[in-house]
Structures are given as C-alpha cells and as structure tokens.
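FIELD: query
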Amino acid sequence: MLITFARAAGGSTLATVRRADGVVLELPGFDRKWRVPHDLAHAATECELGMSEGVFGSIAGGGVFGNMRVVGGKPRHDAADRSRRLLAANKRPLGVAEVLAGVVHDAVEHGRPAVPPELARGSWGIFSSDPFPWSPAQLSGAVRRLAGLAAEFERSGGALEFAWPDRLTSPVPAPAAPRRGRRGRV
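FIELD: result
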C-alpha cells in the first residue's frame, strides 16, 4: 500500500491511500496547527512498532473510516461489511495506536529526542494491565523515524510518499455464522 501525504488547502494534510486491491482513498487530516502531520505520526509509529491493527494496517486490510472517501478503483461488493467487521475487531488496537502515535507525535513536534518510557507505559495502561510490549529502543526508533519523515515532508514543501509494508495488513475477521435454532411452536 502506498500512502501519499500532502499539505491541503487551509494548512491541514490529506493522505491519499492506494491499496493493493486497487482502491484509492482519501483520508483528511485535522492537524493544521501542527508542523508534523498526525497521520504521518500514525504511519511511522505503527510501522516501527509492528502494529498491523492500527489505523494504516486496518486501512490496508479493507477498513474505511467515516471521514474517508473512495476516489478511485472499485471496492468489493461486500466492502462496507468487511470494513465494519475489521474496525470492530480492531477497536482496542486502534485506541492503542491513537495514544502511542500521539506520544510519538508530541515528542517530534516539540523536539524531544525520546519518548519518556513512563508516558508510553501510562498510555498503554489505559488499555491493558499486561506488561508494556515495546522496548524504549523501539519507541526511540519510532521517534527517529517520524523525525526523519517530518524533515523530509518539510524539505519537499509538504509532500511525502510512505510505503506501508504488506506484512502489517490487518486480517479481516470472518462473518459471523448465521444463528440457527428451533423456533418456538405455537
């Protein structure tokens, strides 16, 4: 999947997503007050941390968020149902991706070279009591990657292509089996 981030009118960003199935989608950003696009923070963070069920892994798998629109290609006949199932199954990981991308975004936006591990762990603690699954080195890698991408975005005048790895495509859950049962006799 190829994601093109570009400055849009009014200063926000627009991510154009070209999925492997030929569908082209637009994802508007609501980040005009930030130097670094928030959706770019998602891409860098989710990719570095191997998050296949975050925003971009979900999109790669067929998820379409409410603020997105199809601008090219032909979606599958069951695209809406597949998207609904995938986004419902990924609800918790999408929340985790949101808070971790926010932590990494904040570090880069404010020029801090590392994410304070306690901040990331605290964000994780909102979702789980399990041990934090990423190391400080992985978080630092996400910050470095986003910082490099942000610098490239600025140098290019507000345009950047990001190749999303196929290995981080979220699987689509199978449809629920039809309920079978005996009807009550009257």
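FIELD: remark
DSSP finds six helices and five strands in the chain.
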